[in-house]
Amino acid sequence: MKTVGYAAHSNNAHMAPYHFERRDLRANDVAIEILYSGVCHSDLHTVNGDWGPQPYPLVPGHEIVGVVTAVGEDVKNYKVGQNVAVGCMVDSCQECDQCHHHEEQFCRNGMTPTYGAPDRISGEITQGGYSKHIVVREEFVLRVPEGMDLAKTAPILCAGITTYSPLRTWGVKEGSRVGVIGLGGLGHMAVKLAVAMGAEVTTISRSNKKEAEAKAMGAKGILVSTDAPAMKAARSSFDLIIDTAPVKHDVGAYAPLLDIDGTIVVVGQVGPLDELMSVPLVMGRRRVAGSLIGGIKETQEVLDFCAEHGVYPECEMIKMDQINSAFDTLAKGYTL
Prior knowledge:
Elements: E1 2-8, E2 15-21, E3 29-37, H1 41-47, E4 64-71, E5 83-86, E6 89-91, H2 97-100, E7 112-113, E8 133-137, E9 142-143, H3 159-169, E10 177-181, H4 185-196, E11 200-205, H5 211-216, E12 221-224, H6 228-233, E13 238-243, E14 258-266, H7 279-284, E15 287-290, H8 296-309, H9 323-332
Parallel strand pairs: 10-11, 10-13, 11-12, 13-14, 14-15
Antiparallel strand pairs: 1-2, 3-4, 3-8, 4-5, 5-9, 6-7
């Protein structure tokens, strides 16, 4: 299938139109016309080569919403004309314990990311959602619930599942005390999802300039991390902190905010963190953990949850030819 997308041809993150071929439909494949693709901070990191060398030309995009245009002969769950979605991965071995436990992101043999990795069968490099079409194995296609706003659904496939999964894993429920570090793409979804679960949510930021925004999303307010007296007063006040900061920072500075047996879950930063002091961890049996997106079953669960509770990301719509200015904004726009 001939298609066109926007690709990075080197590590300067400058995107340009790119004509390429999608693979022929296999028996278990779904062909999708892409209607919307979210722009994720990890797209910028990847095309810049921040996480290692990349197989350019590279079409990013792993927050994909579209409509089925064709299905392979063995496909059972999807039909032409159906609204569907694709997230951060498009294949896994389907045979290991993690795949059997619906945790394909931890596949023992390595999951296949939506872009930038060899296809498990053909070896060709996967290309993502900044394009007109995509072909994906049925098991990695998701159903978009009836009535969802398609224009606002795409970021749920990454920012949504990345924050939903630790909220579920660490048992957030009515009355849980949740802190969220940062109010960017990941952070604002963490706030909205935790609020919808019934938690008492506080945004943690270096300033209070987004306090009205946080409260509008259901947070009780902002804890200013540069305010030493406020940080001291907030010690032992959270059961869980979702850390969405995508830059190197001092995770340990937030550890005293956790109650005994509390956990900070890092979902933003990929790479080295500042040196971690063990004292607040040891003295409160506190934990620092990490979390990677979620499995396909859980990703379907977050789509259904968002549909049921009316949870959507804050979205700014752009045309595909505006992607370079969007990347510029991402590169300079993050603050804790």
